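Moderator note: this is an archived Q&A kept for reference. The question asked for a predicted structure of one protein chain; the sequence and the answer are reproduced below.
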Amino acid sequence: MSRKVAKIQRYLQPNQGPKAVKLEDFAAFHNLPEDLKKKQIESFRFANSVFPFYIPAEHHEINLSELQNSKGEYWGNAAHFLLCNKAHGIPLWKTFEAQIQSSETTFTCRPHISTNMTNRILQHISINDDDDLNFLFRNWVLVQLPFQPILLFKWLTYALCCLSRIEANVGQLYYVPFPEKFKPELLCLHKMLKTAHRNIGYLFDYLQHQTRCEPDIFVGNLKVFEEILQKIFVFLRFCIVTDGKTFISNLLKVREESLKSNEKVFQLKRGRMALKKRNFLFNLDFWRGPGPHLKIFGDSNEEIVRKRAYTEVNLQDHNFKTNIILERYFEPDDIKKVKMKSMLRDDDFLTIQRKINRLSVISRSIRIEDTESGIISRVLEMNNVVEYGYAVSKFYAWMFKKYKVLPKIHPNSTENPPDSFAVKNIIPLFETINRGTVMSFQKALNCIKRENQSNQKCSSRFEVLCDIFHTNIC
């Protein structure tokens, strides 16, 4: 019997890629001794199986009429989430971390809820877990985040998925030349991305600290927590509420139109992104084998260090992938300008080519079959898509430097978006979002109180929560 595992929405998943592989053939497990490979497989299954499913809004809002009139679906989710909090949350995080650090080949962590019971509790839900992303902004969810580590883990993972999804689009803006007049908009988007990376990382620091505080819940400074959430909110609102990828598509379109003249250009550099080398379970290198320094949620001041086994690919295969990129993304007349022999003697090109080929090899075995992929696999797959996009952008930049040619406009970017998505609106939009985004736990509580004032069903809980927030914020 297969155990149900939580998934992310189709909207956040990578587009259909190479054929899915069995967990045993997962990219991170290549070249491992058989005994360690079995341990890593069990570790991966465990981490996916204890990831909580989404709880419907009616539970967060304590909507008793909906719960009482339901056929069990709301109670099933809540029962699973409660069991995860009490049995699979803080108590097992530290144990799991010790297991993945140990070079011993046995893995003793097991879900406290049997496969049969899990599937029975969750029999009413779809395997795809297609919930509404607006739960990221709901007041009842937000006020619980400092006190419910499992809910914070779920919330952060969805924020991380949004980050990967938008970064796959923003990545097209890096390295390739733009008319210098678009420099402010490019730097604005770059700052948004770096800020989101950094602050999502800070809340993963919060969870890592939680593993050292078990069995108590570490609350910390709620004012700092608010400030971090507010910065993540700006990013999330741009991605979800304002459809940020349409602004990016339009920026790519106007770049092509503007660069026909010989005006001065600007090339955006990526630099260091906080989550790229983070030592946590959403990094592919984390799963390449046990290590004494591995951390389940990581530390913003540390990076993961792994010695990767490199499989040499023959020159013909290297060039085959390069030819595919040329044919797919460049016009035939531009391809005729390329001198392949000269390319193969260029160190900069060869470095880019090796990166593209390495990521292509990983992509063939990073998509795991649905029954065992869970949330972790999809995040890792999306991360690889992002890195591949950056590598291809570097190739575009190299082509422009050598031959003064640019890639074809993406078919989707040739459509004319509404005027509201004009490039000139990017900076005013961020200014508006910044002014309008005020994350306040006290304000969230007051909003909930007003909404529930008529029946006063939550009055005692409000008094307790308001006291906690007042003590920690003031």
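Archived answer notes: The beta strands are 177-179, 265-267.
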